[in-house]
Amino acid sequence: MSFPQSDLTGTRYSRHNLIPGWNQQRLASAKVLVVGAGALGNEVIKLLALVGVGNITIVDFDKVELTNLTRSVLFREEDIGQSKAEVAAHRAMEINPDFSVIPIHADLEFDLGMGILRSMDIVLGCLDSIRCRLTLNRMCRLMGIPWINGGIEMNAAESTIFHAVNGACYECGLSQEMWNQQNLRHSCSGLRTVTPEDPVPTTAPIASITAGYMVQQALASLHSSSTTAFDASKIYLTFDPPGMSVQMLNPNPNCMAHENWSEIKLHPFSATNSTPGSLMRAFGIEKGVLELGFDLLTEIRCLKCGKDEKIMQPNELCSSTLIYCPHCSSASRIAITIHQIEAASEFFETSLSFLCIPDYQILELIGDNTLHVQITGEWQPVVERK
Fold it and tell me: Which of 52, 65, 78, 354 is the most buried if burial means most Cβ atoms within 10 Å?
């Protein structure tokens, strides 16, 4: 078979460059975060690699399972039991050796410092739970980073892009039914119930189609010269019967997620080498508090026998089965939690890592003024290349 001479001598992206307004250099310098490396995330990562986005970071805390193989183009049977983020990164580099990819095996809410997200141009959320979407939405809004939410079901899908600072956000459109569904996962004390979320049945074609819309929206955003060039909009697809609609989203003026931390100060020391006290002293705060950003379960106490047990875990990660006392077998234990630390606290000189604060987290210090401080300095990823 013979090929036209232009095809033999063209560059990898020569066909892209024929598209009016296409800027391959812009894509080569772009930094994109993909959160979730399941069926939808696989397709998104594949497409980002093909179009030549230069810097991709993949976040997922899960491992490859047998059931993933029918819907995830980047996974193989020999990958079962391995980190989804790491396997997806390895396979993406096989698709395109010209780009860098950083896999992060971590929980979005409690392991990923917002300083990592702050360094991105756009975020693509390929998540399967309301809670994770709420978390990502608030993180992106605080950091002023646009993000795209993808969702897939058995015969339907959506792709929604949210502005960095203005307009509607994911939380604005959350129905009461969705809030109720989210709240079912936690007991009155905030501890996680043992009831797992039902898996959503879907197929590879639906994931592929949805990813196409998501990546195309991301490309439009990356090519835009203005960060205010678009309003929040949702593309909704149905496949049985086939249909498509586009909806412009209106902001909720009372939405609690509409906060932006525009000025971030840097603190060079890691979570292991910093304490609430050292952080406040570094920024001249004599009397103030450090907001953890979550409820930290410090201990659990039995009201019947008086026995205490140290926990030191985010409350959301702890099971409601902790209320059962192993000493007296009663369901009488209560959770002792904190969400901020001041000078009188027993944890004032405790390392931030012991307080479950990850590196590159951005913390709120409240004194005479409110400061937002990123620990560990600017994020300097170790780039993996094929």
Answer: 52
The predicted model scores a pTM of: 0.91
Tell me: do 148 and 289 sit in the same domain. Answer: no
User: How many domains, in total, are found in the chain?
Assistant: 2
Please state whether the peptide bond connecting residue 196 to the residue before it is cis, i.e. omega within 30 degrees of 0: no
Instruction: Please state whether beta strands 265-266 and 289-302 pair in parallel, antiparallel, or not at all (unpaired).
Output: unpaired
pLDDT score for 58 = 98
How many CB atoms neighbour CB 201 within 10 A? 9
**Tokens at residue 336, please?**
């002792």
Q: Is residue 365 part of a domain?
A: yes
Range of the domain at 219: 5-248
Helical segments of the chain, H only: 5-9, 24-29, 39-51, 84-95, 108-111, 114-118, 130-143, 176-183, 204-223, 276-282
Task: Say how far apart CA 296 and CA 276 lie, in whole Å.
Answer: 14
- Could you report the per-residue pLDDT of 293-338, keeping only the tens digit for each? 999 999 999 999 999 999 999 999 998 899 999 999 999 999 999 9
Q: Supply the CATH number for residue 95's domain.
A: 3.40.50.720
Same domain for 239 and 275, yes or no, is no
The helix (H) or strand (E) run that includes residue 372 is strand 370-374
The tokens describing 244, both together, are: 């498509």
Averaged pLDDT for residues 169-178: 85
Residue 319 counted as domain residue: yes
